[in-house]
Write a structure and sequence with these properties.
There is one protein chain. The protein has about 375 residues and is mostly helical. Helices cover about 75% and strands about 0% of the residues. It has a domain of about 120 residues.
Length: about 375
């Protein structure tokens, strides 16, 4: 398996000559359809279009371009294994290569950078598809949790205090559990990386080897594909949002979750968490807890339910365009579905024991 991965040709070399032309024609047709739909959305002003679509899309493409460029620089200089050296003992136990450690490290700072590094390594033939999937899913555990913790902590703590701390603690346990289970899975499913005297670590290219001259052509070859996939999917998500589809999904999901096994007041926390934004659910939870309408365990369970329902919908809305551009529409959707499913399962695994422990307060 190791030899096959190393000898595998980069993915970009295996494309059929007419593949890009056909893809461009299909995407052009999609673009015409989306442009027509944009013109028919009622109440869509140029100001709303620029603020809600134009500027966010340009910002996303900028960050994706920077992430792709940084990933290719690290790969061209063979610095990937060095960047992830601190995590290599843990990842090596999971039979993941040293290059995976670079993406794991990057995930603590930027999900886009981590994903572009993974896809670059895959296209260069240095990772198999299974290694890419396992590393991506591990990255969505503890690294992503810690990446968002500084922001969420200072929103949650003032609004919900003790319940917020328990909520964060359960989320941390779920993230660690998710990463640990995935590491164990990769250890069982992946062969051990080659070690020993017959395997030499990659050497950084010496000055003058031309890596800098090759960087721009590689970036120029890859980035247009990212743009061609990202723009139509981002516009489609914008149109779906404007037509109220996501709002309908959120409200329907909130009503489905809050079906009588919690007090009516807890249902409002779930609905605010799902139908509005993250801070709204926290504010509603804090107000109801201060009024004595909800106990701490009830508040925690309500917040966890809101998170389990709202997060997949938000991931589809905010992450699908970048995932489709960085990976591919099919692989990007597959990774999103797997990561969100594992997230929900891990949250269920930690909330059930807590719920049982506090069940005498829930009735």
């Amino acid at each position: 398996m190791e030899a096959q991965t190393k000898n595998r040709k980069p993915k970009t070399e295996n494309r059929k000559p007419g593949g890009w032309a056909l893809g461009a024609v299909i995407l052009a047709g999609v673009a015409v359809f989306l442009a027509y739909e944009l013109l028919t959305v009622p109440g869509l002003t140029s100001q709303k279009l620029s603020r809600g679509l134009g500027w966010p899309l340009l910002r996303l493409l900028f960050y994706m371009g920077i992430g792709l460029l940084i990933g290719q620089v690290l790969e061209s200089l063979n610095w990937s294994s060095r960047l992830g050296a601190w995590a290599s003992p843990v990842l090596r136990w999971g039979h993941l290569k040293a290059e995976c450690g670079a993406a794991f490290t990057a995930a603590f700072f930027s999900g886009i950078l981590a994903n572009t590094m993974l896809m670059t390594l895959y296209q260069e033939g240095k990772l198999s598809r299974r290694e890419l999937v396992c590393t991506y899913l591990i990255n969505t555990g503890l690294p992503v949790y810690l990446l968002h913790l500084p922001t969420t902590f200072f929103i949650i703590l003032p609004l919900t205090r003790q319940a917020g701390l328990i909520y964060l603690g359960l989320g941390l346990v779920a993230a660690v559990l998710r990463s640990a289970v995935l590491l164990a899975y990769s250890r069982l499913r992946l062969p051990a990386p080659g070690v020993g005297p017959g395997v030499a670590p990659p050497q950084a290219p010496a000055p003058g080897q031309g890596w800098l001259r090759e960087l721009w052509p590689r970036f120029r070859k890859r980035f247009p594909r990212v743009v061609l996939y990202t723009i139509p999917i981002y516009v489609l998500i914008f149109l779906v949002t404007e037509k109220g589809v996501f709002l309908w999904l959120r409200e329907a999901a909130a009503r489905w979750v809050a079906l009588g096994f919690l007090p009516v007041e807890a249902a409002s926390v779930v609905i605010f968490s799902v139908a509005a934004e993250f801070a709204s659910g926290m504010a509603a939870a804090g107000a109801l807890m201060d009024a004595g309408a909800l106990t701490v365990p009830q508040t925690v369970v309500a917040l966890m339910l809101g998170t389990m329902v709202a997060t997949p919908i938000r991931a589809l809305r905010h992450q699908l365009p970048s995932h489709a551009g960085i990976f591919s529409p099919g692989l990007g959707m597959e990774l999103l579905v797997m990561s969100q499913s594992l997230r929900i399962l891990s949250l269920i695994a930690v909330i059930i024991p807590y719920w049982i422990w506090g069940s005498h307060l829930l009735h």
